[in-house]
Amino acid sequence: MYTLILMSSRKNSVRQHTIHRRHILFFLCVLLIFCTGGTGSVYYGFSQKHQRTNAEKELQAKTETEIEELRQEKRRVESELIDVNKEMKTIHQMTEQIKQALGILGQGGGISSVPGVFEETESSDETQQENASAIDANLNDTPEKQEALTPDILKQEILVLYNYIIKHQTQLDEYPSILPVDLQQPDGEKHTYWYSSGFGWRLHPLTQKREFHQGLDIKTRSGVPVIAAADGRIAQIKEERHFGKTIKIDHEALLLQTLYAHLENYADGLKAGQEVKRGQLIGYVGNTGRSTGAHLHYGIYDMQKEQWINPMTHILDQQPTIPR
Questions:
Q1: Cα angle value 285/286/288 (rounded, 5°)
Q2: Fold of 177-313
Q3: pLDDT in the model for residue 7
Q4: pLDDT confidence tier of residue 260, bands split at 50, 70 and 90
């Protein structure tokens, strides 16, 4: 045990208190617990504050990153929109040139419609009239006002061409617009070709005399598939002295006839009177008749004017490959 003595300075009195050891130990334990708890509370408070500060910094950094990403995405979308607007203007200019070439520009206006083809079924008559007026207004506006070109207006302009093409599908199908040789090989490679002789005056390679060449000589390997340049009907399959094995195809809608000469052979089952489609196999490049080497003599004859015309004015892809 321990004795605690308290003395008063005024009354000169003395008080004694007996304190057991267990009381002192209990007091020390309580004091230790209090100090430990206080220290832990202070540390916890600082820790929480630090965590909140770090969380706020991370949230701020994440927010700034997201804002920057949104800004970049906004700039990307704006750039794409600019590109889309440029493409729309280019398509608009192309449609105008096509309509002018087809002779359907300024011939009464409005939206042409062909029964049985694509139409705006969900649009009312008022909506179609508004679209037509918007097209006419856009065509007649100044370049500054034409900046307001919209997808709907562009769609209506293309619809005019689409309906026109459907209406004149037969004539378009019979137009000899492709190179009459199939250059694609089964292994994915392509045969090479070039024009060994064009349409017009030349020195004949055999006679060395000046004469008018009434077709286009397409030089390529022997056996390369020959295809129909357009839809039509086989008018003649015959071997001639000058042209060798030949095929003639009539394209009655346009009053044209295409000639394929110096063939090595004909496609299996091909016969006169048979209808063929553009791109259909009809024969193979060869060296029959009066020829200095394997090539296809390709000609286009205008049956109405009774004269040969330059095939180069009809072939859309005219870029020959360099021979290997």
A1: 140
A2: Glucose Permease (Domain IIA) (2.70.70)
A3: 72
A4: very high
